[in-house]
Every structure is written in structure tokens, then in C-alpha cells.
Amino acid sequence: MPAPQHVLIPAAGLGSRLGHGAPKTLITLGGRSLLEHQLRATAAIEDVRIVVGYCEQEVMSAARAVRSDVLFVRNPNFRQTTTLQSLSRAASGLSDAKVLIMDADTLFRPVDFDAFVAASADVEALLGVSARFSEQPVYAHTDGSGAVTSFHRERPSGLEWASLAAVPASWLTDQPMAVFEALTPHLPLPAFTVDRLEVDTERDLQTARAWLDAHPEFLRDV
Amino acid sequence: MDDPFHFAFDLDGTLTTAEILPLIAAELGLREEMALLTHLTLNGLIPFEASFRLRFEILRSVPLRRVQAIVAEVDVQPDLAAFIAGRPERCSVVTGNLDLWVKPLAAKLPCRWFSSRGAAGADGRVNLLEVLVKGRAVQAIKAGGGRLVAVGESRNDVSMFEEADVGVAFGGVHEPVAELKAISDYVTYDASVLCRLLSTF
After folding, report:
1. Residue B189 exposed, middle or buried by CB count within 10 Å (0-12, 13-18, 19+)
2. Taking a C-beta distance cutoff of 8 angstroms, is the pair B37, B197 a contact?
3. How confident is the prediction along chain A (222 residues), in pLDDT tens digits per residue?
4. Does residue A213 sit at the B interface (CB-CB below 8 Å)?
């Protein structure tokens, strides 16, 4: 089976908890915007689709500065729709093609991300999980083989959903729910552990900046 | 069973790699003046019909054969031309430009055409009969059944996008106007990416 030929990046959201006014994906870490980090991570994937909404013009301009062949999918209803619904718009027309989905405000450790993409070629679907916890984790429960059997907001486990997956595009349905809820009917699914930094709050941002100073392997070389 | 999708393409700056009217204007040494008019029109500062009538008045003093010779030299975007050639029965060019002027491009884009209409007058000059309203062209296409994807970049494409099922703003030559992006489903600046998207319909 081939590695995903498409990557869908939902960048339509508000990022209001950060209070910067600008969309989270344009926040800089290690001298580059989070959006730029995602585009560099996916440079080898032919079809890059970014869903835009909040500050769409700024996001489009920032993406085009890195990659000229991005397809922008507009979600003008971003204030009333979920990330899943943004992804559903981006997935339109792709039927069952395997797509990579990744949040626009997360910095994935490059070695882990690349290994995830490579591993996704061998399976119908692969879920990214992480042992580093964000502020409001969606815990992933796994069985003996390491497959994810369920997601829970309330029941802690050793791993959380990393908002990174390779799935058939048809699984991304237009429903007002979270991405992990749309994936739940397809469980159990194989999991792959990745390290990543999420930037949800001002404190996350300060923590991330300090972390990067000490851990340059989180940044890709040019 | 899903209805098949039809495709409606703007001509100037979408299917062509250059804007046509400025090329004609250069014949009269009025390139800058035409560029100003075009700029004002693209951004909706002058309504398309008034702008086109004005530009037509300026350009009609260029002999028709000379205009057609200039237009014959205009390049079409190769990926889009190939896309159209692969499915001509599902494609239409929808242009506010004058049929008599853009006729040489019909050979390069062998699909259905909707354009503004002109006729050669008794004095040998061209007369403008009707300025195309793009939304009406799309209604005509959809009257045959099926859904429609519209591709364009200027203010004049808004009525086309309003009647279409899907709108793709394409910045092949210049930035699509904000008013059009605001009602688009997709925005892209790369012709091969555009074709890849259209192939999924």
C-alpha cells in the first residue's frame, strides 16, 4: 500500500485561548511559523490542502511563501463548525484515498513524523499518539498489541491522541463532532507514538520556546 | 447516481497566460490607460458592463483582422487546455470578451463558448451587440442538467460563481479579487493543482 498522497491541514480555527488575535498556526517557534513547520514536514507529499477560515488571507499568504502549490479549501463557517467538518470539506472528491491529517498548531518531532508517514504506508489507517500531555488531552486506550481500542476525555491512560493520523478520506464525515469521535467507529486501529509540542495557551508557548532551545532535534534543517 | 459536473472557465487571466485587452491596447499606444481601466474593473470600481463598453469603444478602432492576429498569438495555459481537450462536452469558456476578437482562441479551446457578441458594421467597424452576463451563461449550461464548477479570478466572475455549485478562484496570472475569494470554495495559484482538483469532480 502506498504512503498517503494527500495531506489535509485544518487551519481555519480561531486559536482564541492564546489571545494573540492572530491564528495559532502563524505563531513562530524556532524562527518559523507552525504552518511553515507543517509544510516543511510534508514537503514530499504532492497534494497539500489547507483549510482556511479565520484570517484566511494571512494564512494563505504565509503558506504560499513556503509552497506555491497548496490547494486552499475555504470554510467560511469556521466559527460554527468543528475541525472534523473542516477536514470533511478538504476530503471532498478524494473518496477512499488515504490522507494524512495533522493539526496546524502542533510541532511534531521530525524523526517521529517521518517515521509515522513511512509506517502509514503499510496499514489501512494509523493513529498518532503521544505520551506528552496537552492541557485537555483525549486519552487513547490501547490493547496488548498497541492498537487503540477507545478514546476517553475522562479516563486517563498513558497516551493521548496526537491529532495526527493517516485514514481513508471517506472517514472524515461532515458531522459536528471531534475528529476522534469520527474515528471511534473504526477502532481498534494501530497506533504509532510520536513526540510533539502543542501550543494551546500562552504558557504552552513559553514552555515550547524553552523546550526548543534545549532540544534542537525538534526543528528540521532547511 | 450523481449528476456529472460541467466546468465553466473564465478566459482572460484564467485560461490565457496574459490579459488580452492590454495587448490590443498596445496597438494604439494606450497600454497604460487600458491597464488602469482593467485594474479598476478587476476590483469592481467600475461595473463590468460599463467598463467593457468603454474599453470596446477605445479598441474598436483597431482593425478586426489585426485584433484577431494579436489574439491568435496569445498562449493558453497548457494544463487547462489539455483538461478541456480531454472532456470538451463538459467544458465551457465563459468570457465577457468579444466573440469576434477572441475567435482565434476557439481552435485552442474546442469546447462550448459564451461571450459578448459583436457584428461587423457596414462601415467595416465592429458594433457591440450584447455584453455577456456570466451568471446567465451558467444558467444556460445548467439548464441541460448536471452540476457546475466555475473557475475564474475577477469581479466579473462573481455572477458565475453565484450560479455555480462549486467555485474555484484561480490566481494563475494575478491575485483573484477579494470579492470572488469570499464566495469561493477553493483557492489555488497553480494550474496543475487546479486540474488535479477539477479531475476529482
Report:
1. buried
2. no
3. 678 999 999 999 876 666 567 888 999 988 999 999 999 999 999 999 999 999 999 999 999 999 999 999 999 999 999 999 999 999 999 999 999 999 998 999 999 999 999 999 999 999 999 997 787 899 999 999 999 999 999 999 999 999 999 999 999 999 999 999 999 999 999 999 999 988 877 788 888 899 888 888 999 985
4. no
The C-alpha cell at B98 is 468579444
Rg (CA), chain B: 16
CA distance, residue A50 to nearest chain B CA (Å): 10
pLDDT tens-digit profile of B114-124? 999 999 988 87
Q: How far is CA A126 from the centre of its chain?
A: 13
Given pLDDT bands bounded at 50, 70 and 90, which one contains residue B2?
low
**CA–CA separation, A87 vs A179, rounded Å?**
9
Average pLDDT, chain B: 93
What's the distance, Cα to Cα, between the start and end of chain B in Å? Answer: 14
pLDDT value at residue B4? 83
Q: Please list every residue in chain B whose beta carbon sits closer than 8 Å to the beta carbon of residue A92.
A: 200
Specify the pLDDT at position A222. 58
Residues in B closer than 8 angstroms to A72, CB to CB, are: 186-188
* Residue that is written with C-alpha cell 472517514 in the block: A171
d(CA B156, CA B134): 7
For residue B166 the three cell numbers come to: 462549486
Tell me if A73 and B184 make a contact (CB, 8 A cut-off). no
CB-CB under 8 Å, B189 with A93: no
By the 8 A CB rule, do B13 and B154 touch? yes
Per residue, the 3-state secondary structure of chain A, as one string, reads CCCCCEEEEEECCCCHHHCCCCCHHHCEECCEEHHHHHHHHCCCCCEEEEEEECEHHHHHHHHHHHCCCCEEEECCCCCCCCHHHHHHHHHCCCCCCEEEEECCCEEECHHHHHHHHHHHCCCCCEEEEECCCCCCCCEEEECCCCEEEEEECCCCCCEEEEEEEEEEHHHCCCCCCCHHHHHHHHCCEEEEECCEEECCCHHHHHHHHHHHHHCHHHCCCC
Contacts A–B by Cβ distance under 8 A: 38
- Side chain identity, residue B146: G
Does residue B190 sit at the A interface (CB-CB below 8 Å)? yes
Contacts of B120 (CB under 8 A, 6+ apart): B64, B100, B126, B127
How high is the ipTM of this complex?
0.94
